[in-house]
Design a protein that fits this description.
187 residues; alpha+beta; 6-stranded antiparallel beta sheet; 4-stranded antiparallel beta sheet; 34% helix; elongated
Length: 187
């Protein structure tokens, strides 16, 4: 084979390696930039939460809280006037493993685990809602959301900073450790 062929083959191979390296570097840069922006967004949200000492809760979605290494889900629903219906569930991964046909995860939790529901209303702007063994201070903020006051929670609990929907609850393995907010007990 001629030297022209080998030079051509070498230059094509070199070009391929060069393109692969450039693509790898660009992808690595993009991923690190995205990860950095996600981390800064989490820090911004945490800063805002600690500064305001509140977390906004959309009616109908779930707030996940961890109390003494046990996960609980709290859902608030707007009732009438300033009344709010609440329900909390002790979340249990073994319940989803024992899935029965046609039953939702929440139906299985109601049958097998700890849960409660009720109605609360604001008296002088604030009310308390139970989540398992503790209560959290709450007030309504509008027709679509209310507030939980982190600074007034007496127990050291962790709150997941993103709200979830019912379909998310039967697989909580995806919860990102960096998105948990640790509340500090009042002293």
């Amino acid at each position: 084979m001629s030297s022209k062929y080998w030079r051509f083959a070498f230059s094509i191979r070199s070009l391929g390696v060069f393109v692969a390296i450039v693509a790898f570097v660009a992808l690595t840069w993009k991923l690190s930039r995205d990860l950095g922006s996600m981390r800064s967004e989490v820090r911004r949200l945490e800063s805002q939460l600690y500064k305001n000492q509140t977390i906004q809760v959309e009616y109908g979605s779930f707030v996940v809280a961890e109390v003494d290494s046990q996960l609980y889900g709290l859902r608030l629903s707007r009732s009438v006037d300033r009344d709010v219906d609440y329900e909390w569930y002790k979340l249990d991964a073994t319940v989803s493993e024992n899935e029965e046909k046609g039953e939702s995860y929440l139906e299985r939790l109601k049958k097998n685990g700890e849960w409660a529901n009720g109605t609360t209303n604001e008296t002088q702007g604030e009310s308390n809602i139970p989540i398992g063994p503790i209560t959290v201070p709450w007030s309504s903020g509008g027709k679509r959301w209310g507030w939980i006051y982190l600074s007034e929670i007496d127990e050291p609990i962790r709150i997941y900073s993103r709200q979830l929907y019912e379909s998310d609850l039967d697989n909580l393995t995806f919860l990102d450790e960096e998105l948990w907010i640790l509340t500090k007990p009042r002293n």
